[in-house]
Protein: Multiple sugar transport system permease protein
Amino acid sequence: MTALASPGPETPRPETTAPRDAGTVPRGRRGRRGRPRLASTIVHRAIVALLILYLTVPFGWLVVYSIYPSSNLRSTRMDFSLGDITLGEYASLLSDSSFVVPIRNSLFVATATTIICMILGSLCAYVFARFRFRGQQTLLLSMMAVQAIPAVVLAVPLFVLLRAFGLYDSLLGMILTYTAFILPLVIWMMVSFFESIPVNLEKAARVDGCTRLGIVRRVVLPLSGPGFAATSIFAFITAWSDFFLAKVLTSNTTPLLSVRTASFQGLFAMDYTAAATAGVITALPVLVLALLAQKWIVQGITEGAVKG
Structure:
């Protein structure tokens, strides 16, 4: 019978190295690690600051030119005295019918184009997002391929076509023209937003007795609100700020604001204050609209980019 071996003296356990706390990192090493990050942050913020200046300084200079007399800014030493600031040119332009009528025309054309594009574009985009049929991708890509054709190439055919149908120099002709250009982009953008909505929500609505159009109106459109807002603003800005087609397809009967603003630039002389004031008035609706809906624009573009 073997005797049980008595436990010997305990062998010393090797010392375990505890994980080094972040606070125990030597200061010199932390400093060396933090320097590249600090330098990257400084460079990043400097680039952002330069970009903001690059984008805002031209518009700021336009505002300055619109509120100061031209003589103050065109002299050798510019005079920025606060006492010389005046809004007289704004009052003069907004009381001039030759400038108010183009504002009204552009507002009507841009609003009507946006409404038509969003109604037709949303319905078409819903079909592309929810139904599968032969030639679907080909049709979608062909609509975008049309956008690759420069407007200058289509200007003459559009001029001949509108003139043949009696729509040259008319608001209806401009609405139809802008709708043809903007509608494919609206469809393309809205398809991405509709695809991001879960199909189960629509199935639940159908179980409750909702029709297909009812689903679009009560479920799909409310859930795609940010994308709908972003696309609407995009359509409005495109129709509002176009100059080339408005210059070719309109004349004196239905002038648009972009053409009227460009007319301040004369061949031999130019009224800088009036031109700058007209530029600010032209850009102001788009600026206000973008600021008011910036949350929806960012959210809509982000959702569309992730899904698309």
